[in-house]
Design brief:
Length: 261
């Protein structure tokens, strides 16, 4: 029995409803669904297939390898669930790359229709007729869109208010400010000779906060410098970044610089 009003409904159109069903049945998503905060419904594309064999794919015009998903079954399946507020998204490696900003935007929608591709992809007219967006979860090719849909569902649903227990958590994690997270530690304070940075044991919240910001900047600089240009820079971040760069500057060697004789 739902305890709260549903904030986000997601229909996933797929030839493998079981993958989706299992993927959203446990942990945080499972609980959020039970509480009625989100709804995730797989829709069996096969039942919209054509002819006695419920065909959903066909050979490509012009020849070439593989099969193409037919427009009729996909469009009928989407039309069975969508309304004027729905956002229709085709999962395909040709799509725009999914990221945290897109996840945040989607978490404010009321209804998503995710369409999972199989075979060599969708007939181009599906995108045109449905005015659908195309989304890729990364520059690699999966055997189908189901796992990609689960990635999207995970990333989007945890941003829906009420899904994650501590409402601060999704806002503080990697990418929330456009930066990677600072390193994290938990007990014991010494693990196989590896300690924990002193500041984290100090109980001094302001120093901990500043240390985290600085380490988050350092980590992003070292691992994902491409993210820095799109980060949400404020005065404090700029100041801390100057400190990080200062710390990284190599010590001048003896004999270098103006004071050398
Ligand atoms: N289907 C196959 N590969 C995919 C990808 N990288 N992203 C989204 N859907 C896909």
């Amino acid at each position: 029995m739902a305890e709260r009003a549903c904030r986000l409904r997601i229909h996933v159109i797929t030839l493998f409803p079981e993958i989706v069903r299992v993927g959203v049945s446990c942990s945080i998503l499972g609980r959020a669904r039970e509480a009625g905060i989100i709804e995730v419904e797989p829709v069996d594309l096969r039942s919209f297939g054509e002819g006695p064999h419920l065909v959903v794919d066909d050979y490509p015009y012009g020849g070439g390898p593989g099969m193409v998903m037919k427009p009729g079954p996909v469009c009928r399946a989407v039309r069975a669930v969508y309304n004027e507020d729905s956002r229709i998204i085709l999962l395909t490696p040709q799509g725009r790359r999914f990221d945290q900003q897109w996840a945040e935007e989607m978490s404010r929608e009321s209804h998503l229709v995710l369409v999972c591709g199989r075979y060599e992809g969708f007939d181009e007219r599906i995108r045109e007729v449905l005015d659908a967006e195309e989304l890729s979860v990364g520059d690699y090719v999966l055997t189908g869109g189901e796992v990609a849909a689960l990635v999207v569902i995970e990333a989007v649903c945890r941003l829906v208010p009420g899904v994650v227990g501590d409402p601060r958590a999704p806002r503080e994690d990697s990418f929330a400010r456009g930066l990677l997270e600072a390193p994290r530690y938990t007990r014991p304070a010494d693990f196989e000779g590896h300690g924990v940075p002193e500041v984290l044991l100090s109980g001094h919240h302001e120093r901990v906060r500043r240390w985290r910001l600085r380490r988050s900047l350092l980590r992003t600089l070292q691992r994902r410098p491409d993210l820095l240009a799109g980060a949400h820079w404020d005065a404090e971040m700029r100041r801390e970044m100057r400190m990080v760069l200062e710390e990284l500057r190599p010590e001048p060697k003896r004999g270098d610089g103006a004071g050398a004789r």
